[in-house]
Amino acid sequence: MRKNWHSLREFETLRAVISAGSTTAAARRLGISQSAVSRSVSQLEGRIGQMLFVREQGRMQPTAEALALNENLDPLFDALSSIDGAHWKSSPQHPLRVAAPPTLAHRFLVRSVSSFLKANPDRIVSLEICTSDDLIGGIMDERFDLGLTGADMTRAGLKLIPYRLSKGVFILPKGHELTKHDVLRPEHFDGVDFVALTRRHAARSKLDQLFAEAGVSPRIVVETATSVAACEFVRNGLGVTLTNPFPLISGPDEDIVVRPFQPEIAYRTSFAVSARRPPSVTARDFMRHIRLSTPKSNLWEPA
């Protein structure tokens, strides 16, 4: 009876294509040709009788069978790592590559990274500031080990770990006419000067829908890509804005007034990690540090 042997190179190629997302990137990682990668994948598919990848929007998306096989291979590669000196295991001297969009990075993560490194002087952290789309792509391509994002999406190879829940609030300049209301509603904003986030933000679409349903039209005076910039425009008297209070609003502020909004617009902040490999020891330690050191507020709660 012929035994259905598989080569270690086929398994290495499978894991490389899953993590890199393309045969070209996998070939660079393995130091072989793209045709050799494609041939190795085809041979493995032929041996096991299963399709392992489908091409979607220029990327090689692993099938459920590929992900299951990859998970079963973890013990094999863990054993090989121990045998040859664990050269690819996580080490305190390997930088933890963290990514976050500007608001979370500047207003929260800089403090968190600083306190983590003071408590763990043997660790190294590399902080990348980017859009949530770039963050997600970097996690899937293994350019980043850990992300912090407000994006809520489902992608093959991506795992979101809920961290914080919050509800949208309106930020008003001191003395604004809407400060007389304890709770703000869509009907309050007809003709009101408004600082809006750009349309790529999910909360912008939700708010536009609520305004349309209420038959009101705020006067948009400026659009901006970040919540930090929107709040600064409010401080300078350009109008009002809706924002996620985490992490921007942590206490009283003499220049602005905060009001709840109904109906509620929910925000969720999550850790983003690869679904294809477990977080490193340093990544787990950093997530634990963030959870334990996050200040308490009545504007947000643990997820």
Automatic annotation (TrEMBL):
GO MF terms held by the record: DNA-binding transcription factor activity; sequence-specific DNA binding
Record-linked SUPFAM superfamilies: Periplasmic binding protein-like II, Winged helix' DNA-binding domain
Keyword line: DNA-binding, Transcription, Transcription regulation
GO biological process: lysine biosynthetic process via diaminopimelate; positive regulation of gene expression
Domain HTH lysR-type intervals: 6-63
Transmembrane intervals: none
Name by which UniProt lists this protein: LysR family transcriptional regulator
Species of the source: Denitrobaculum tricleocarpae
Classification lineage: Bacteria, Pseudomonadati, Pseudomonadota, Alphaproteobacteria, Rhodospirillales
